[in-house]
Write the structure tokens for this entry.
Amino acid sequence: MRRSGRILIPVVVFGVLALVPKISVSTHGIFTSPLDSPGTLQLLGLMLCFAGIALSYDLLFGYTGLLSFGHALYVAVGVYLTAIATTKWGWGMAPTLLFIALVGLLLPLVLGAVSLRVAGIAFAMVTLAFAAVGSTLVQKNPRQWTGGEEGVGVNFDHLPSWMVGVFNTKYLYWIALGYLIVVFVIVAWAVDSSPGRIWQAIRENEQRVQVLGLQPFRYKLMAFVLASFLATGGGVVYALLIGRADPSVTTPSFTLALLLMVVIGGTGTRWGAVLGAMLYTFLDHRLPDWSGSGWIHDLPDALSKPLSQPLFVLGVLFILLVYFLPGGIVGLARLGPRRGGLETLEQAVNLEGTHGDVEEEEEMARV
């Protein structure tokens, strides 16, 4: 029954989301235009895109316990290579995607192998350093490819015609939804696999995993490459939705936003990153409009001035969410509960075929 629910809920949720472009209803007060309008569909597409990117970050942070400050680098790879390949190199969609997929695998494989030589805050700082290099490279605008502070647009002349024009925004929305579904399925499959059990065991107690001879470095690198590759795919979808590459995706604040999305939704859960990312993206785009509304200005100065600052309102809301819901939004519905460390470790050991007395091994580790 529980297993069927884990399959049925995603099917129903994603099925309803797929029908959104076919629903024409007024969304006054929530969105600025009807649900099936290009503007609303673009915002919904961004919410779905960031849900997939945040889920890739949760695979790294929530399931494996790796705090990275450089996840934005791999999103930026997808964003900038999409824009550069179509605009500066004149490539079509197929060679662009193949090249991005190759870079999206090789780059995190190399950088991850270096970063994972250290752990804890040192790992976070090394990933931040690599992200800073990427941000600096974008600002330097080598060969006039990145556009510097102005960024570079996507040349839709080299892309399929159904991606071009505001009336085709619904197709970009479906691309974003398809990306989220693919990431959701891959993450769910990976977490329930043998390496996935070991990732969670590493999150709970890496030393215990190492004593059992399971080589944590290899499994952490596997999680790092998979999460980064999925984030690169999200960068491609983001570039298509926005229509350009912007330097903001290379900054550390972009990764911090992903971290905040995951924490708000609930780390290491099946739906937490999805809900947290969608809520964060929605508020980030809609609060500026709400803060400038007439009823805000009609309030006393003690209320109107702080409420007219979107960042202040956003910060207060998130503080309240973290304070009253330490397990994240997903804790309200008990969706996707985290497995305990002991259960995860035992499953990992059994799936890897490691034999012996676990209690004796733990005693050896303490000695």
Observations:
- The radius of gyration is 22 Å.
- The CA atoms of residues 56 and 230 lie 6 Å apart.
- Residues 216-242 form the longest helix (27 residues).
